[in-house]
Write a structure and sequence with these properties.
By secondary structure, the protein is α+β, with helices and mostly antiparallel strands. It has a domain at 38-71. Helices cover 45% and strands 11% of the residues. The chain is built from 3 helices and 2 strands; from the N terminus they run ββααα. It has helices at 34-37, 39-54, 59-70, and strands at 2-5, 9-12. Strands 1-2 form a two-stranded antiparallel sheet. It is elongated and about 85 Å long.
Amino acid sequence: MNIKIGNKNKISKSNIGHQLQPSHDKRKDTKKNFIERHPVLMSAIVSFIIGFILLFSFWKNIILWLENLMK
């Protein structure tokens, strides 16, 4: 394929607009850890842990302090 630009300039044997094939993902060869294999399960476990922490009574003091700060 030859392209003429301007005053007899030529670009020969060029590929314009060709598509590159992506190389194989290097991560496919390595093993994924538990968190990468089960993200929904891990998010549910973290949610339960955070919910359990929020059940403690000392949060009442923090909530009162934040409410007084907003007044």
